[in-house]
Amino acid sequence: MSKFNTIITAGLCTQLLWSMPVHAEHHEADMATVFPQETVLFVGLSGMQHLDGIDDDNLQKRCLGDPEFKAFYSALYGALDAFLQKTMREQGMPKELHDSGLRLLESLTLHPVGVGLIGLKIGEGGPTVDAALVCRAGKTAAKMQADLTTMLRLMGAPVEADGATTRVQLPLPGGLAFSAVDDCFVLTVGANAERLITNGVRGDGSSLRDHAGLKAARQRIKGNDKTRTGMLFVNVIEARRLYETYLPMAPDVDAEELKVGMQIMDALGLEGLESICLEGHLVGGASYTGLFCHTPRGGRGLLATSGTKRLTEEDLALIPKDPTFAFASNMDLAGGFTAMMNGIKQAPPEVSEQIEGGLQQVEGMLGFRIVDLLGKFGDTFAIYDAPENGGFWFSGVTLIADCNDVEGLGSLVARMAGLGSQMAGEELDMNIRTQQHGKHKISFVNSRGLPIPIAPAWAAYKGRVIMALYPQMVRGALDRLDKGDRADSLLTNAEFQHGFKTLGELGTTVSFVDTRNGAAAAYPWILGFAQAGVSMAQKEGVDIDITAMPSYRTVAQYIHNEVTARQVFDEGTLFASFGNKPIGFSTFAGGQLVTSALGASIMLPALVEARGVAKRSVCAENMNQIAMAMYLKAMPPEEEEVRDTKFPDNFKELLEADFLKKKHLICPDSGLTELKDLDDCYVIVPGESTFGWPNNIIVYERPGHHGNEGTHIVLQTGETKFVSLDEFEWLLSDTKKRLKEKASSADAGD
Predict the structure, then answer these.
(1) What does DSSP assign to residue 662?
(2) How many other β-carbons are positioned within 10 Å of the β-carbon of residue 8?
(3) Which of the two residues, 706 and 37, has the higher pLDDT score?
(4) DSSP 17
(5) Does residue 575 contact residue 511 with C-beta atoms inside 8 Å?
(6) Which of 195-199, 314-318, 414-418 has the lowest mean pLDDT?
């Protein structure tokens, strides 16, 4: 077994330690008190001992104490640990290494732990990093130092004792050191981290807990130091300062690339974001997660798409009582779309021009502007699916939205249906039909000729529009709303009520997910994957079988359906989730774009690739345009029947026919601004025709762009692909071979 696999197995053992009985001494669980206020990135875990202070009726705590789950953890932990010991014996590793490592893992799991990036500098001598891991282990802190020293020495690492501190001579700027400081085990990297963390442990100076962004977040996030299970904090201002100041000094970093990254951040409207904080708490009998985006100067862009108007009970009464999922929001769709497009204009030209050009093409085909379609809707809307609708998760999805012009919306839908018929030709006839349902008129798209599996339908209802994939869903919604019984709405769903009792208020966006329903559907699949996993594990010597898995009846006892809300305050935006998961899926979805953009600014090397990705997408679009132009040029006149026709052999014909512009012949990653020859970037393979072999290449990009990672090709089917250079050479050779055989066959026939 490799050292890597040994580490992975040890990591699994760490997770399984969460099932062990906890009888540890209690300490301050908020590790933010230890790290300095200027810390850039911080992750804190409260430790398993923290569960002692949680209410006994909490789902997670009850789950860990359930006999079936305890048996599961015990079986899995025992099998993995036995396998790990056997493997280490086979590799000649001393048992002391296993025992020391397991004690370390146990301490890190039981006690509060904080990990943080304190600072980063890049100079002529290279990067210098200040970072630390701190575990508030009490009396076992000194034992952790001794165990880590033992492990490193057994593995042959250059360990030296420097008074009470152990130092390891590793190729890290500032070196690695660890020690027991008061009641904490402290491991640091960097010249300044050791001093800063020691001061923090002893309460000298300001700490991360004093940061204005963290204080603002904790004012809004439910829970306290006793209920918190973990947290993530990002000092966005400091991360941005490091990004702008030091990264340009790094070798092989293009300052222009960094500028593009900042342009993208600003285009998304994130320049006012000062910090983000994500915390998990065990409150209300289940798990609560809050993600707070601190924008004391006001949020815009992605943080302002839903405005500040809160939903009302009347809005939520539109949703059935027991949906599989539901989402309601106050959102200016047209305004949000306009803001997004304005932001795109601030992005690099190769990105913005491509997006705007694509939008213009779509709108040209539709015959109306997207913003005009969105403008038909008001601010408030609800989307849901429910068993009473006859749908399953998404097949019965229904939209109920404020609408100021239902007839105008219907005419746009009719225009899209007509466009569908036109594009499909004589094989498909799409038209609008109506049905009278009581006092309501339902319109729907009727399709004749091709097996179209949906019939989009809509109807007006008291200043709103109801839309669904089928008329039946619209009828069901109309019947329920006509009845006017709030007892039949989401407002009376017991778990929804429980969730909002914990969340505190409705907010501008609300969602509900029937997690129990989803778990029931997924459980048979999980069993299948588990059986496959234990079969492979047994082959590797891990003695465990499928009986270790808890039954669904047991699992279902500890599942709480998920309720989420987006709440807007003067100082920031809170995405809150309550359910049985540490982080709610819907909450994460609400903040996904924000956190992804922030992650890009923190994970510095990854952002350097951002512009390369944009250039590659522009290049792929160029190839799509070339392929379309070649097919248009090769099409026979309308009066002639469809037949095999030859593609043009050069770009000049396409330019003269105005099917292509010169800008489509320049790859942005080639470094060219003008073409010496039309095929400087892209090459047409001569001799191809519209009825050729599907895997033949008709156009390819000259290799050498995109960092030699690969190149773009267009196949005879019109599909554009990015392939490795080896695959490209193989496909091109195959293409030329087939074309040569085809030409020889044609000559023989003549």
Answers:
(1) G
(2) 12
(3) 37
(4) G
(5) no
(6) 414-418
Q: What is the CA radius of gyration of the chain?
A: 31
The rounded distance, in Å, linking the Cα atoms of 347 and 262 is 9
Residue 565: its H or E element: strand 562-569
Torsions phi, psi for 38 (to 5 deg): -85, 5
Give the three-class secondary structure for 308: coil
This prediction's pTM: 0.71
The answer to whether 620 and 722 are in contact (CB under 8 A) is yes
Query: Which structure tokens are listed for 461?
Result: 């209802």
- 577-597 per-position pLDDT tens digit: 998 654 333 333 333 233 233
Residue 262 confidence (pLDDT): 62
Q: What is the pLDDT of residue 610?
A: 37
Residue 470: strand, helix, or coil: coil
Distances from the Cα of 34 to the Cα of 7, 202, 287, 620, angstroms:
28, 8, 26, 50
Summarize the confidence of residues 314-333 as an average pLDDT. 88
Pair of tokens at residue 711:
């190149």
Check residue 327 and give left, alpha or beta (phi > 0: left; psi -120 to 50: alpha): beta
What confidence score (pLDDT) does residue 127 get? 67
Q: Does residue 388 register a pLDDT over 60?
A: yes
Name residues whose C-beta falls within 8 Å of residue 686's C-beta, 6 or more positions apart in sequence: 649
Q: Write phi, then psi, for 27 (nearest 5 degrees).
A: -140, 170
121 strand-pairing partners: 128
- Which has the closest alpha carbon to 273: 241, 292, 299? 299
Say whether 381 sits in a helix, a strand or coil: strand
Q: How many angstroms separate the CA atoms of 90 and 530, rounded?
A: 27
pLDDT of residue 211: 95
The full 3-state SS of 727-746, as one line of letters, equals HHHHHHHHHHHHHHHHHHHH
Which of 683, 663, 661, 659 lies closest to 673, judged by CA?
663
For 15, residues 6+ apart whose C-beta sits below 8 A from its C-beta are: none
474: CB partners within 8 A, 6+ apart: 398, 437, 442, 444, 457, 458, 459, 466, 467, 468
Q: How far apart are CA 385 and CA 388, in angstroms?
A: 9
Digit-coded pLDDT (tens) for 627-649: 888 888 887 775 566 567 888 89
Question: Percent helix, strand, coil in the chain (nearest 5)?
Answer: 45, 20, 30
DSSP for 664-697? GG--TTS--SS-SSTTSSEEEPTT-BTTS-TT-E
* Backbone conformation region of residue 715, classed left if phi is above 0, alpha if psi is from -120 to 50, else beta: beta
Query: What is the C-alpha to C-alpha distance for residues 160 and 178, in angstroms, rounded to an integer?
Result: 11
Query: Using CA atoms, how far apart are residues 311 and 309, in angstroms rounded to an integer?
Result: 7
Q: Write 236-241 long-range contacts (CB < 8 A, 24+).
A: 236/273, 236/274, 236/275, 236/276, 236/598, 236/601, 237/274, 237/275, 238/38, 238/39, 238/40, 239/40, 239/41, 239/598, 239/601, 239/602, 240/265, 240/601
> Rounded to whole angstroms, how far apart are CA atoms 475 and 389?
9
Token readout for 616 is: 């590659």
Q: Which of 216, 221, 220, 224 minimizes the C-alpha distance to 289?
A: 221
**Tokens (6 digits) for 632:** 């248009």
> Parallel, antiparallel, or unpaired: how do β-strands 562-569 and 572-579 relate?
antiparallel
CA 208 to chain centre: 27
**Residue 284: closest CA among 84, 560, 468, 76:** 560
